[in-house]
Write a structure and sequence with these properties.
single chain, alpha/beta, Rossmann fold, 10-stranded mixed beta sheet, two-stranded antiparallel ribbon
């Protein structure tokens, strides 16, 4: 039971929204300004500032946002070796860069080196930046709205799409009516890219150094397309299909998801019954047992309750599918717990699986992904046709079909930059992708690289969402070489990972297998980075 409790703690750290960026420091104590004035905040060595940015860059007199910035300052500031800021974006539409630095900053700063400041920021309208967009009047109202699989997966129940469509039509109208400050028209990705250039210029620079993961890949690629001559170093990792993103068609994002599912079956069988609680006599048998569970909860949902866990409810078909997909984000941390949850579900206890499941949408997804992609005008019948058209892409394709359900009622659609996402940049991009990423497949990295001549794709031979999901000293060494001296990996470089998917219960799962070819320093940082990333993993599938 101790091992199970520790595993669940890790899962909750990985999947529960963190609010560190919004507590422990009074952001109201910092006035917004057109210059950067840094003050100590949180715990040393972090410093914070606020930077004003025009709400509308085409009409600067229309008001402004005050962007919350945080940094780990260079230890070489004031010397000839100081080289300026590296801006980091942790992903997630509406993801907090403040939170990202608080959780990941120590590891990231070691990777980029002491010559650089490591800077994060809360994008306009988000978290500690102001004004903050929110179309719910209270946390209770927000919590009452269902962004989960029952509301967004168009296959959650027979004939459910018409009610899902109507639900998001109503929410779209509510959001538009409550946006009295006009914030929603100005929180687009292209405006955030302009904000990043403003941050660079506030530091006295002219070119961007950037490291962005997941949604941060869209932000980084959009910046490179808008300001190709302003790129000094730019890494994107966990790369979306840019064309599909801006078309509100995410079907290409799940082309590798079933690879992760197959790996679960194969590696569970290899690990044996001691390490994998859902073990069976062959990978095929494990797959059959999972199918049997889907059928079981389809006909009779399973209660999910434990006095030691924060959530309770029941596990039905969409909840189970959602939970399995959620485990794919960080399989080196969660596959063992997923196996335990499936075994418990088979025995009538849905509590572990229920904890794994999480919402698929949010206010930020609606405002950023829906508001600034192509307008979705589908009614329920067209949404059903779309869902049917992509069902062969993946056994999880209905989950990403939910993005069109979410967006079908959105009503704020300003004329923003939507591409083409391509350009000849002043320095080549480093683009990173895993061999099996459940939501940003390697194909997205390769497709994007073709649009930016000279860019190089670094492949990490691992599972999970972004290279942060699994420790790879090889990948980290290439990242540092790129920031330090502009060295790109050789074409077709593949980095191994240093982790196991099903460690024995007595093992410390945070310790990787040692690779004598790598310095111990990279090994330790890689593991620390993976574990820290688990604490700021995306709030939902989008």
């Amino acid at each position: 039971m101790a091992f199970l409790a520790n595993s669940l703690t890790l899962v909750l750290l990985c999947l529960t929204p963190q609010v560190l960026g919004q507590t422990g420091f009074d952001w109201g104590s910092i006035p917004g300004s057109d210059n950067l004035t840094w003050v100590d905040c949180y715990s040393p060595p972090t410093q914070c500032s606020r930077l004003n940015a025009p709400m509308n860059y085409s009409n600067p007199s229309a008001g402004s946002f005050s962007l919350a910035l945080i940094r780990i300052p260079s230890t070489l500031s004031g010397t000839a070796n100081y080289r300026g800021p590296v801006i980091f974006n942790p992903g997630g539409q509406g993801g907090s860069g403040v939170e990202g630095i608080l959780e990941l900053g120590s590891q990231l700063a070691q990777v980029i080196g002491p010559e650089f400041d490591l800077v994060g920021f809360d994008p306009r309208g988000v978290a500690n930046s102001s004004p903050r967009f929110s179309f719910f009047k209270s946390d209770a109202e927000r919590a009452a709205f269902d962004f989960g699989p029952h509301a967004t997966d168009p296959t959650a129940a027979p004939n459910v799409l018409p009610s899902q469509w109507a639900n998001f039509q109503a929410l779209g109208r509510l959001a538009k009516d409550r946006d009295t400050a006009g914030v929603l028209a100005h929180v687009s990705t292209d405006n955030v890219a302009r904000d990043m250039l403003r941050i660079v210029e506030a530091h006295g620079g002219t070119k961007l150094r950037y490291w962005g993961i997941s949604y941060g890949s869209i932000l980084g690629a959009t910046f490179a397309a808008m300001f190709p001559e302003k790129v000094e170093r730019l890494i994107i990792d966990g790369v979306f299909d840019m064309e599909g993103y801006y078309a509100a068609d995410w079907s290409n994002e799940v082309i590798d998801t079933d690879k992760v599912l197959k790996a679960f079956f194969v590696e569970c069988h290899k690990a044996g019954p001691t390490a994998c609680a859902f073990y069976a006599s062959s990978p095929t048998a494990i797959a059959r047992n999972l199918d049997a569970l889907y059928q079981k909860v389809l006909t009779q949902p399973v209660p999910a309750y434990s006095p030691d866990l924060p959530k309770y409810g029941f596990v039905d078909h969409p909840t189970l599918k959602n939970a399995v997909m959620a485990a794919f984000y960080q399989p080196y941390s969660t596959f063992s717990t997923l196996a335990q949850g499936l075994a418990a579900l088979r025995d009538g206890d849905g509590s572990i699986i229920y904890q794994l499941s999480f919402p698929q949408g949010s206010e930020a997804v609606l405002a950023i992904a829906c508001g600034y992609a192509a307008k979705v005008t589908d009614d329920a019948a067209k949404l059903q046709k779309y869902t049917k058209s992509i069902e062969k892409v993946s056994s999880f394709s209905s989950i990403v079909a939910g993005i069109r359900v979410l967006c079908s009622g959105w009503q704020v659609h300003p004329d923003n930059f939507k591409g083409p996402i391509k350009g000849v940049t002043s320095f080549p991009l480093l683009i990173i992708g895993n061999t099996a990423d459940p939501v940003t497949p390697l194909a997205g990295a390769k497709k994007t690289a073709k649009q930016f001549p000279g860019s190089v794709v670094l492949t990490q031979d691992g599972l999970g969402h972004t290279s942060f999901a699994s420790p790879s000293p090889c990948t980290i060494a290439h990242v540092q070489a790129y920031f330090q001296n502009g060295t790109l990996p050789a074409v077709d470089t593949v980095c191994p990972v240093a982790a196991t998917l099903f460690p024995l219960p007595s093992n410390n799962s945070t310790q990787p297998r040692r690779d004598v070819r790598q310095e111990m320093k990279w090994d330790e940082i890689a593991v620390d980075l993976r574990d820290a990333y688990g604490r700021v993993a995306r709030r939902g599938f989008y």
